[in-house]
Design a protein that fits this description.
Blueprint: H1 3-16, H2 24-54, H3 59-67, H4 71-84, H5 92-101, H6 106-118, H7 121-131, H8 133-156, H9 165-169, H10 182-217, H11 220-227, H12 234-242, H13 249-261, H14 266-278, H15 281-287, H16 293-321
Length: about 325
């Protein structure tokens, strides 16, 4: 898809910057410029498209839709809505309170909270740019499965008492759902592109910069030996390393791409990314305001286990879905 861009950047690096592509520096500079342009193009397109769809699902409407679904159907719908509904760690508390106040089961609520940060239009765009549509779609499906399974297990454990008492006593009330015409939806999508890019560009540049350094300088044989798909402990290490970090999928995908280019297993790289987005320490701190430590621990264990299983799945089928 981007062969034309690869060729142009090679010409730029070799002819304009006078850096040989056979050197580590040339390889790193090419990676940084190529990935930056490629990701920005796909990022803008995907954010615009999904934001247009998202305009039909404001938080209040999402809450009312979920009220209508029970059982496993509710978990599936929550995970699917998590893909197109705005979510970040700062919004986890008000969303959680709003869902509980609406009477939505705690398991359904957690299906949403697990899937939403893992799978979003920006992450899909960068995955598409870095790894191709097979990996991108498989990643989305895996994120939904982790969210649905995690929510079902939490529901079966009957942990409603692990929610702080004041949450059940809050009355947020019904918010107004403002409908948009087509022109407003297009404006919403365009504004969302500007807002998201402005908010995440620093994560993106840092991630691409680290990825470029890994691409040019990291020792491939060493990484392949200790983090390759044949190492049974590599996925565990990836998840454990990802949990304490504060970032999002956008900053970690370029790193995952560079690691894979050096021989790291696709499952190891993507499980690291999922752990950063779904189990980040700042999100756990915010969730502590509304749920007790036992439920937080259960959430981390269930979600972490699901991510590890997904990592092994990707490592096992990586040769089938890789570009």
């Amino acid at each position: 898809m981007f062969d034309w861009l690869d060729s142009l950047v090679r010409i730029l690096v070799e002819n304009t910057f006078d850096i040989s592509m056979s050197t580590r520096l040339g390889s790193s500079v090419h990676f940084f410029i190529y990935d930056t342009i490629k990701i920005i193009i796909l990022l803008g397109i995907m954010i615009f498209m999904i934001s247009y769809v998202r305009s039909y699902f404001p938080p209040e409407k999402t809450k009312r839709i979920l009220e209508k679904f029970k059982g496993i159907q509710g978990n599936i719908m929550a995970s699917l809505l998590g893909i197109v509904t705005p979510f970040c760690s700062c919004s986890s508390v008000p969303l959680f309170i709003g869902f509980v106040e609406a009477g939505i089961p705690i398991g359904v609520t957690f299906s949403f909270l697990i899937t939403s940060p893992i799978v979003n239009e920006a992450a899909f765009a960068i995955l598409l740019a870095a790894f191709g549509w097979k990996v991108a779609l498989t990643y989305v499906a895996a994120g939904v499965v982790v969210g649905v399974a995690g929510g079902i297990i939490i529901d079966k454990l009957h942990m409603e008492k692990e929610v702080e008492e004041y949450v059940y006593n809050m009355q947020i009330g019904k918010g107004e759902i403002v409908d948009m015409d087509n022109a407003q939806r297009l404006r919403f999508a365009f504004d969302n592109v500007k807002e998201i890019v402005a908010r995440i560009w620093i994560f993106l540049m840092v991630g691409i910069g680290i990825g470029a350094a890994i691409h040019g300088w990291a020792p491939a044989p060493l990484l392949a030996k200790y983090a390759g798909p044949d190492n049974p402990f590599a996925v565990f290490v990836g998840v454990v390393c990802g949990i304490p970090l504060y970032s999002n999928a956008l900053g970690t995908i370029p790193i995952a791409e560079a690691l894979m280019n050096k021989g790291v297993g696709i499952g190891t790289a993507l499980s690291f990314m999922m752990a950063v987005t779904a189990l980040s320490f700042p999100e756990m701190v915010l969730l502590r305001k509304v749920i007790k430590p036992r439920l937080i621990s259960t959430f981390v264990v269930i979600t972490g286990t699901g991510i590890i299983l997904v990592g092994y799945l990707f490592n096992g089928i990586g040769h089938l879905i890789a570009v």
